[in-house]
Specification:
Layout (H helix, E strand, L loop, with lengths): L1 E10 L2 E12 L4 E5 L4 H4 L1 H11 L8 E7 L11 H11 L11 E3 L2 E2 L5 E2 L4 H10 L4 E5 L3 H4 L6 E5 L2 H9 L2 H7 L26 H13 L3 E5 L5 H7 L9 H14 L2 H5 L6 E2 L7 H5 E2 L4 E2 L1 H4 L4 E5 L6 H5 L2 H6 L1 E6 L2 E6 L3 E6 L17 H8 L4 H5 L3 E5 L16 H18 L13 H7 L4 H12 L5 H17 L7 H11 L8
Parallel strand pairs: 3-4, 5-8, 8-9, 10-17, 10-18, 11-14, 14-17
Antiparallel strand pairs: 1-2, 2-4, 6-7, 12-13, 15-16
Helix pairs in contact: 2-3, 3-6, 8-18, 8-21, 21-22
């Protein structure tokens, strides 16, 4: 006898439909699993056999062959168990295989028959919905994340006995006995406590730099002595970012689902904020493993990657950033193929100006010039070139603690950022770019036109040595963002001056 049901597979971020074909025939008794399957998939035959036995179903003494098609794609993971079990039940005549058309089965079986959650089920559900699958049977623990997928009916299966009951009923009786899961708008259950920029004493320049960086998607470096509020500013940047759109939320949640970290996002509000420790390895940032999974760079997709004490990271780790900052994705090459994960994040860095942290205050700084050069030299030129804004966090004064006006609140800054981003959305509508920071050099003249006075100002700055050729376009793009924040369509000299100030901050440290 022959039957076929559907499941789903995953290769990197790409999900695909898998046809699970089952044949039971005469011959030497055995259970063969074929179709370019990894070791963890081959183990499914033991899990499925014992789970069915504990549910009161014994497999026939016959030659059983299960093929996972297409056979030219390597199958990995434990999510095929429930589909194999359903295919066996159909092939044994326990249910009608025709009633399982347009239905997919995903889930791992425990030996006692329980159905365990699987990672990466959200992108698979999205792909299967596009392939015409109308109903999905998933582990009960995966119901909420799959509930984000529109246009698909979900049935949560806690135990193989419920799967057995489902396949043995059909028509209206099935609809009455197994109502689909009621989808929610979002799986998030908590909202983070608001962190206000007004709580950061002083540091108006650094806070302004964070606002510009957020509005135009520019990478940011904040340098200053310990305790000046660098980390506080960085932690508040997600609060002034616009919320994730529905499409962005599905994209971000898919990455976390593959990484097995979706629970972390359930209790967070806003965009991802990832802050790795300086002892993290290159593999932790880029991702990988025997079965490749997204790393910290991909987990910060559509959000913030914050590197605190950046020079303390190893040079090998920092060099991992080069490709993602340019291509906005991470590629992991393995013998089974190349895995591509998105990594479109805003880089925010914080650092001390020297190993002890107090340079140039020679009353407190004990570092030699060679110590400082060696410390700053841990950050390579190519990485520095990818950072647009360099802000300095000045030492906090006692008077800052007693000021009545503690600075603008997060809500005020967020409103300006949202308005600036809306202007960019209109400006770049229909183009591959969304933000000023993403604009390639060849397009700067088209979108960031300068008047004669502004052009003359830039020439004077360049001739004075305050700006290199490499920084020329960066300064114009920064000025475009400053003008957007001011609600101006035309870039003025004062916008260029502020842009030059924040871009030339690198020269105060790296001479």
């Amino acid at each position: 006898m022959f039957s076929a049901v559907y499941a789903g597979g995953l290769h990197g971020m790409e999900a695909y439909l898998v046809r699970v074909e089952v044949d039971i025939s005469r011959g030497l008794p055995g259970f063969e699993l074929v179709g370019s399957v990894a070791g963890d998939v081959k183990e499914a035959k033991e899990r499925v056999t014992i789970a069915l036995k504990n549910a009161g179903i014994s497999l026939p003494v016959a030659k059983i062959t299960v093929n996972l098609s297409p056979a030219d794609i390597r199958k990995e993971g434990s999510g095929y168990d429930m589909a194999i079990a359903a295919g066996l039940l159909a092939c044994m005549g326990i249910c009608n295989a025709d009633s399982l058309q347009d239905t997919a089965f995903l889930g791992e079986l425990a030996l006692n028959g329980e159905v365990n959650r699987v990672n990466g089920i959200l992108p698979i559900a999205l792909a299967l919905q596009k392939k015409g699958i109308k109903t999905m049977l998933v582990p009960e623990a995966n119901e909420e994340e799959c509930g984000l997928v529109p246009g698909i009916s979900l049935i949560g299966i806690p135990h193989i006995k419920k799967l057995l009951s489902y396949v043995q009923t059909s028509g209206e009786e099935r609809n009455n006995c197994f109502p689909p899961f009621v989808k929610g708008k979002s799986i998030r259950k908590a909202v983070e406590k608001n962190q206000d920029f007004a709580d950061v004493y002083g540091q108006e320049s650094a806070k302004r730099a964070a606002e510009i960086a957020t509005a135009g998607f520019h990478h940011l470096m904040i340098a200053g002595a310990p305790g000046t509020g660098k980390t506080m500013i960085a932690e508040r940047i997600p609060q002034i970012l616009p919320p994730l759109s529905d499409a962005e939320q599905l994209e971000v949640f898919s990455i976390y689902s593959i990484a097995g970290k979706l629970k972390e996002m359930e209790h967070k509000a806003g965009r991802p904020f990832v802050s790795p420790h300086h002892t993290s390895s290159p593999q932790a940032l880029a991702g990988g493993g025997r079965i490749p999974k997204p790393g910290l760079l991909s987990l910060s997709h559509r959000g913030i990657l914050f590197l605190d004490e950046m020079p303390e990271f190893s040079q090998r780790v920092l060099e991992v950033l080069r490709q993602p900052l340019e291509e906005k994705q991470v590629q992991i090459a393995r013998s089974g193929g190349t895995y591509v994960y998105p990594a479109d994040f805003m880089l925010v860095c914080a650092m001390n100006p020297c190993p002890c942290g107090y340079y140039p205050d020679r009353n407190r700084c004990t570092c030699t010039e060679s110590d400082i050069r060696r410390y700053l030299g841990r950050i390579s030129g190519p990485i520095l070139d990818r950072i647009d804004i360099f802000a300095e966090a000045e030492p906090v004064q006692v008077k800052d603690f007693h000021r009545e006006n503690k600075g603008e609140k997060t809500e005020v800054i967020r409103e300006r950022v949202m308005e600036a981003r809306e202007r960019q959305k209109i400006r770049y509508g229909g183009s591959p770019w969304q933000f000023n920071g993403e604009l390639p050099g060849r397009e700067v003249e088209r979108y960031c036109k300068l008047g004669a006075g502004e052009q003359r100002f830039l020439e004077e700055v360049f001739e004075s040595g305050q700006m290199s050729v490499r920084c020329y376009h960066k300064v114009i793009k920064l000025a475009r963002t400053v003008a957007d924040l001011a609600g101006k369509e035309r870039i003025a000299v004062n916008h260029l001056a502020e842009a030059v100030y924040f871009n030339s901050g690198k020269q105060r440290f790296w001479r």
